[in-house]
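Sorry, I am new here, but would you mind making up a protein's amino acid sequence and the tokens describing how it folds?
***
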Amino acid sequence: MTDLDQLTQSLARNLKHWRTERGYTLDALAARAGVSRGMIIQIEQARTNPSVGTTVKIADALGVSITTLLDYEQGPQVRIVARGEAVRLWSTEAGSSTMLLVGAEAPGPFEMWDWRLMPGDRSTSDPHPPGTVELMHVRSGTLTLVVDGEEYEVAAGASATFEAKVAHEYRNDGSDPVEMTMSVIIPLGR
């Protein structure tokens, strides 16, 4: 079984588990997530690999982190994610990518990401639920952060944070790769 097959199976199992645990019908979850009922069915039957955006919308609608949606296995208090076990969720032919490093649920969903954004690449995001906060630390390069249409430059060694309830974008307008660590904190009771 390939990594993608494993991810598809895990997402199918976990989506059904969390939808059932929350007591959502297919129609209710589809409405909350803003995706079609057919998409929910295809994911639960492991017949499709949804986009990162769709997966995030479903996780938000269920009130769980994307980490939890992709891996429901309950383990000990300490969870170590080995280098090769991080989940690549987005990449481009130019070499840009995101890696979900680790996530947690208490006191609310919390995720840590490793980003590599190649020159000229960008990643856009729809607004997250109110109260969602993103924090990032740029290790190399200069990130152009666009929040609600306003641009901010975040140079290597600098950090930034914002409430992610508005559309936002990560962009590399420079000539060197941008490498950064990003955390997402999602409020309880979304």
About this structure: Residues 3-22 form the longest helix (20 residues).
